[in-house]
Structures are given as structure tokens and as C-alpha cells.
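User: Please fill in residues for this 166-position structure.
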């Protein structure tokens, strides 16, 4: 399991932090804290907000890129791993799209790892991949198989869109 060095601060019940309403009313939000004019609860709230977001982002990087996210002063590594995580979490590069307005057979494009099937029915459009849409409804799903029969039923103006990703 990957390591996340970014830790949460002041998250326990009863932590010494301002309420959200009091924090939003602080004039220091615009100008920053001035010397001698801030309480520990105000400072703790600001630190908590920053650490929660840092922790969540670091945990996303760790989970999606399977790498350690270290507080070692090297932000370039964190940025590289964030990009890697975003690419692994996204559907991928769009390779091909097809629109079916009548029944037919779709064959997966070479190199496609994912296919997203969306269908809209003019009255009775169906696909074995994701059900159908009646009366202008729509449905969608992912089907990783290489060949799929698509049936556009008797309804008017039904269509199916297949988007394939690398």
C-alpha cells in the first residue's frame, strides 16, 4: 500500500476550531491574520482547511497512481504522480466513435480498452449492453467485449452512440 505523508489536522470531535459560520465572517479571510489579533481556534480552522484538502489530494494521487506521496520538498514528483493518477482515473484517449440509427453489429476498434455505449430511444430502442430507452428516454453503460449486437427497435428516431477509449 502506498504512503501518504500529508496528514489531517484538528479533525477530532471537539477540536479547537471556529465554526464554519464564524470562520466565513472573519475579516482575516481577505487580509490574513495580523500580529497579536488571532486566536488559536482561528489559526486551527485555517490549518485544518488546508490540511484536509492536501490530504484528500495526496490520497487521490496515492490511490490512483499507486505511488508514495511524500512531504520531502519535491513538488515535481507530486505533480508527475498527480498526472499519472488523473490519466489512470480518466476513461483514456478517445479512439473512435460510432453512431447507429438502425440495428447493427459493433466491433471494437483495435487498441480500445473501454467502450461506452449510450442509447436514446424514440420509442423502443434497446441494446443488450445497457437496456433501452422508451419514449425519448436514454440509457448508458460500458461493455468491454469485442463484438456487440445493437438493436434499434421499432420506435422513431432512436440512436446508439459508441465511444471507444485507449
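Assistant: Residues filled in for all 166 positions:
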Amino acid at each position: 500500500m502506498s504512503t501518504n505523508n500529508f496528514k489531517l489536522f484538528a479533525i477530532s470531535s471537539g477540536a479547537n476550531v471556529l465554526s464554519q459560520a464564524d470562520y466565513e465572517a472573519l475579516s482575516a479571510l481577505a487580509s490574513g491574520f495580523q500580529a497579536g489579533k488571532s486566536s488559536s481556534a482561528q489559526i486551527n480552522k485555517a490549518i485544518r482547511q488546508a490540511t484536509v484538502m492536501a490530504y484528500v489530494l495526496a490520497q487521490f494521487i496515492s490511490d490512483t497512481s499507486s505511488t508514495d506521496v511524500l512531504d520531502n520538498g519535491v513538488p515535481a514528483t507530486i505533480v508527475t504522480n498527480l498526472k499519472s493518477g488523473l490519466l489512470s482515473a480518466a476513461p483514456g484517449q478517445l479512439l473512435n466513435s460510432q453512431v447507429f440509427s438502425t440495428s447493427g453489429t459493433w466491433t471494437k476498434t483495435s487498441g480500445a480498452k473501454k467502450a461506452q455505449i449510450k442509447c436514446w430511444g424514440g420509442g423502443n430502442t434497446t441494446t443488450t449492453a445497457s437496456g433501452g430507452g422508451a419514449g425519448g428516454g436514454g440509457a448508458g453503460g460500458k461493455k468491454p467485449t469485442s463484438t456487440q449486437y445493437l438493436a434499434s427497435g421499432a420506435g422513431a428516431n432512436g440512436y446508439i452512440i459508441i465511444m471507444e477509449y485507449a
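For context: The beta strands are 94-100, 104-107, 114-120, 125-127, 131-133, 138-142, 147-152, 159-165.
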